[in-house]
Structures are given as structure tokens and as C-alpha cells.
């Protein structure tokens, strides 16, 4: 009996140890939004991008200095004139279904992505041909200069460029994919996905990381976790309590007012996942009056006080940029103030004069409010109040972010379900230069929601990415910036940093801007 008892104790101990080991290899995370859809081409939402970095890989990836490094690509050879590019994939790449990654998969993925993304469209417009040479090699031949080919293939945000199987990439870009088969470091467990609850990812045992150390989004994606659970917890107080109790391990963006409490907990660490920071972007519908008139858009510059917006959001002074006139983020090599107006102090009388010039006559202005996002909600409410002071008849309907992302595609007039404004929060990868800034593009009908239209701005943008000389590109950038202040595709309502928070036993998190979980361990 004693031997049986000892055997039972030993078996229980082994079971408990195995259970603890399993628990320690599971990372539970709360990101800014819940996973609501799967197609990283059709949607520009950050939650789809975050999902994409889990399950897919990229041809090139941006390192911590913003330099495009080979990722799935082994070798890249460019001609002396920069018009011909030959890419060879590295050995051992395979999709989650066991099929090898081929050049045909890469080409099909680029073609689908190029139908939707502003960077992809720019590259496609400059491309004469893109051909599969063999299973591992493909070429891109340009018809005109395009100085940023590898940077384009490293597109990490908006409609990010991820490689998927050719059979999936052949889906029309207007049709959402539902198969998340990729070749990335994690495998999506579709049968366990519950919108509004959680998404589950398991380690890809067949993934072959690059030999280099991880650097930014580039380098070796070494997975030390068996499982990542992306938990939906829209209430920031609930998420903070769960982090403190150990129910979850990581919060991408805790509410700023909760951060001091988390910092006092010896079991919690905070970090700047995005050192450059974020911007509050006010997106304006250019098709609906009165903001189809530039004067009305200019009026908003004299009503928005960036510091007031950031204070309303609850950003601590240490994490604020009190005034930032730059479209391409303050604190970066492309920071500019060319053409800047307003945003530092309100001038209500100037705003009213511009609204009169635009013919505003008191019609209802719809400002969609993503109330489930604390930052979006606070920024929306404080700006709506400022607009009201100038006489705008504000209607601020509350909805969740998923609903905003659907309704913002409607082109109907306001009285038929249309809209005038919404707030989105962008990181430096969204807005770092004239090529990649998804909301700066102003191509009229082919553009993103809001549909700004200005050929002069488009010509300036194109001249920037076609110019190989860095000094000349910088001169063009200031002209782009000044024109953007005249057209106002969107308005920078404030730049700030937020801190991510994690349990002290989580190691290996790095300032990658986008939340990624390779290289992360749980002690």
C-alpha cells in the first residue's frame, strides 16, 4: 500500500509539474482591440495587422532603425539603374499546412496586396512586370524609378504585406479571406476563435527562424511559448485588475490613468513598446459639406488644441509632445513644420470666419465615437466640444470601434447614415513618410475612407519616392508637408507615448512598435 501511495504521490507530482510547465508556456495578452476579422489586405485595422504578424511572415522586415532587411528573402540583386530586382527565397520555408513556400506564393501575395494598399499601388504603378523564375526566385522590373522597393516589400502596417499561399492570395482583394494559413511563427486555431472573447495561437514547430538576432520586426523569430491567448477585455479597469492578479500577462495599452497604479505593483513592469509614440488623427470626410470645402477643414486647425486633447486622454506630461505640427511624427528624421497652422492655441473667431467662407449653415455634423476605446473616446469628446464652441451642430453617436470601421466606408450623406469625422490612433509605422502614410494619400476615388482628392499632393508624393538623392528627397518632403496643410487629408490632434504593462516574469518583450511575441519567455 505504501508503494502504491508513493506511486500515486509521484504521479500527482509529475502531473502537477506538467500542468505548471504548460501554464508557464501560455502567454495571455490584451491588445488594443479584439480580433474581429482575418484579412490583412482587406482591412487596415491594427487588430488584423497584429494577427498577421503572428501567423504570416514577410519578404523583408523593418529593423529597429527602420531599415528593410531580408526576412523570407535570402538574396536580393538589383541592377545598377535600380530598375531590375531579382529575389531568391531562403531554404526551408513552409506553410502551416506543410506545403513549401514558393515564388508563386510571394508574387500572388504582392499582387493582391497591391490592389488595396497605398504603398502597394505605388509600387504596382511603377512596375513593368513581375515574373516567377522558378520555385524560389522571382523578379520585379520597373518601368520608372521607385527608390524604395525593399521598403515597400517590408510594409508592416495598414494593409501590411504578408505572404500567404497562392490559392488564398488569388482571392479577389474585395473578398475577405477566412483561411489564415501562413508560414509564420504561430498557427491560428480557427476552431477556438470566438469574436468578443479570445483568439488562440500555438507555436509553429516547423518554423525556421533566421540566424540573426531579432531586431525590430526583422531577424530571427525564435518562439519560446507554446501558446498565446489574445483575450478580449475592453474595460481598462478589468484588464488592469486581471494583470495584477496574474490572470493575464500583458496589456498593450493600459488606460493612462491606471499606469501609476500598475507601476507601484512590484510584480508589474511597464515599457514603451513604441518609443516614438502615437498620434491622434482626426479623419475628415472630404465628400460631405461643409468639409468638402478646404476653408471648413482649415477652420478645424484653429479649434483643436493638441495639449488639451492629450490632457483629456489622460496622457502624463512626461509622455506628451505638447505641440507637434508634423505629419511624419516629431522626433524623427522626417519631422517638418512647413506650412503649419493652428493646433497650439484655439482661435474661435478665425474658425467661425472660415466656416462662414465655406458656406456652413448649421447642418448636423456627425462625429463617430468609438466609445470602447478610452483614447479615441476622450479625444472625440474634447474635440467635439471645441467644434461646438465655434457653432458647429455636433452629433456624436457612440459605437464600438468595429462599427466605426464598417460605417466609415459609407459614402452616403449624413442624413442617410453618412459621417463627417472619426478619430483613429496611428503609430509611427502608419505615418512615417510620404509613401507609407496611409491617410496622407489623396487620390480621390481610389483612396481610403474620407476620400481626399488633390492631384498636386499626389504628384509631390510620387516625386518624393522616385527621387534617389536623399538631400533632394528632403527638399521635396517639405513641399509635401506644406501642401498637406493646405489640403488637410487628416489633422494631427496630438502626439504621445503610451506604456505597455506586463507581469515581471515575462522577459524578452522589445520596443517593436507592433506587439509581437517571438523571443518572449515566461518564467
UniProtKB/TrEMBL annotation:
CDD domains: PBP2_NikA_DppA_OppA_like_16. GO terms for cellular component: ATP-binding cassette (ABC) transporter complex; outer membrane-bounded periplasmic space. GO terms for biological process: peptide transport. It is found in: Periplasm. Its main location: periplasm. Residues 70-437 form the Solute-binding protein family domain. Pfam families: SBP_bac_5. One of its GO terms (molecular function) is peptide transmembrane transporter activity. The keyword GTP-binding does not apply. Belongs to the bacterial solute-binding protein 5 family. This is ABC transporter substrate-binding protein. It comes from Falsiroseomonas algicola.
Amino acid at each position: 500500500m505504501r508503494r502504491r501511495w508513493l506511486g500515486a504521490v509521484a504521479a500527482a507530482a509529475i502531473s502537477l509539474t506538467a500542468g505548471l510547465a504548460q501554464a508557464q508556456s501560455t502567454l495571455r495578452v490584451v491588445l488594443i482591440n479584439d480580433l474581429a476579422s482575418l484579412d490583412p489586405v482587406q482591412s487596415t485595422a491594427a487588430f488584423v495587422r497584429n494577427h498577421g504578424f503572428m501567423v504570416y511572415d514577410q519578404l523583408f522586415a523593418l529593423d529597429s532603425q527602420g531599415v528593410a532587411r531580408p526576412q523570407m528573402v535570402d538574396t536580393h540583386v538589383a541592377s545598377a539603374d535600380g530598375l531590375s530586382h531579382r529575389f531568391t527565397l531562403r531554404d526551408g520555408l513552409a506553410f502551416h499546412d506543410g506545403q513549401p513556400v514558393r515564388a508563386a506564393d510571394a508574387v500572388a501575395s504582392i499582387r493582391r496586396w497591391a490592389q488595396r494598399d497605398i504603398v502597394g499601388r505605388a509600387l504596382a504603378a511603377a512596375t513593368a512586370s513581375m515574373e516567377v523564375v522558378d520555385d524560389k526566385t522571382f523578379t520585379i522590373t520597373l518601368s520608372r524609378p521607385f527608390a524604395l522597393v525593399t521598403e515597400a516589400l517590408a510594409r508592416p502596417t495598414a494593409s501590411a504585406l504578408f505572404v500567404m499561399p497562392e490559392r488564398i492570395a488569388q482571392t479577389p482583394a474585395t473578398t475577405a479571406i477566412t483561411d489564415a494559413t501562413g508560414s509564420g511563427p504561430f498557427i491560428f486555431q480557427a476552431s477556438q476563435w470566438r469574436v468578443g472573447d479570445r483568439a488562440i495561437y500555438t507555436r509553429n514547430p516547423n518554423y525556421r527562424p533566421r540566424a540573426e538576432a531579432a531586431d525590430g520586426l526583422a531577424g530571427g523569430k525564435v518562439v519560446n511559448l507554446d501558446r498565446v491567448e489574445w483575450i478580449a477585455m475592453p474595460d481598462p479597469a478589468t484588464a488592469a485588475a486581471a494583470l495584477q492578479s496574474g490572470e493575464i500577462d500583458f496589456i498593450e495599452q493600459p488606460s493612462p490613468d491606471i499606469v501609476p497604479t500598475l507601476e507601484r505593483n512590484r510584480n508589474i513592469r511597464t515599457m514603451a513598446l513604441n518609443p516614438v509614440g502615437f498620434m491622434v488623427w482626426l479623419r475628415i470626410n472630404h465628400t460631405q459639406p461643409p468639409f468638402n470645402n478646404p476653408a471648413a477643414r482649415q477652420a478645424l486647425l484653429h479649434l483643436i488644441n493638441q495639449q488639451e486633447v492629450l490632457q483629456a486622454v489622460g496622457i502624463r506630461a512626461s509622455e506628451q509632445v505638447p505641440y507637434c505640427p508634423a505629419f511624419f511624427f516629431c522626433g524623427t528624421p522626417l519631422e517638418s513644420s512647413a506650412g503649419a497652422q493652428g493646433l497650439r492655441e484655439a482661435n474661435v473667431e478665425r474658425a467661425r470666419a472660415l466656416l462662414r467662407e465655406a458656406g456652413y449653415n448649421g447642418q448636423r455634423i456627425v462625429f463617430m465615437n468609438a466609445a470602447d476605446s478610452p483614447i479615441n473616446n476622450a479625444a472625440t469628446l474634447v474635440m467635439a466640444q471645441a467644434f461646438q464652441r465655434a457653432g458647429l451642430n455636433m452629433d456624436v453617436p457612440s459605437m464600438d470601434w468595429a462599427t466605426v470601421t464598417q460605417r466609415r466606408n459609407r459614402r452616403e450623406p449624413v442624413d442617410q447614415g453618412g459621417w463627417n469625422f472619426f478619430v483613429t490612433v496611428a503609430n509611427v509605422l502608419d505615418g512615417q513618410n510620404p509613401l507609407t502614410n496611409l491617410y496622407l494619400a489623396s487620390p480621390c476615388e481610389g483612396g481610403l475612407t474620407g476620400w481626399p482628392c488633390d492631384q498636386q499632393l499626389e504628384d509631390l508624393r510620387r516625386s518624393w519616392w522616385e527621387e534617389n538623392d536623399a538631400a533632394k528627397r528632403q527638399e521635396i518632403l517639405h513641399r509635401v508637408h506644406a501642401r498637406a496643410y493646405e489640403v488637410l487629408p487628416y489633422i494631427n490632434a496630438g502626439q504621445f507615448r503610451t506604456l505597455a504593462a506586463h507581469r515581471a516574469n515575462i522577459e524578452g518583450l522589445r520596443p517593436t512598435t507592433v506587439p509581437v511575441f517571438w523571443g518572449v519567455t515566461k518564467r
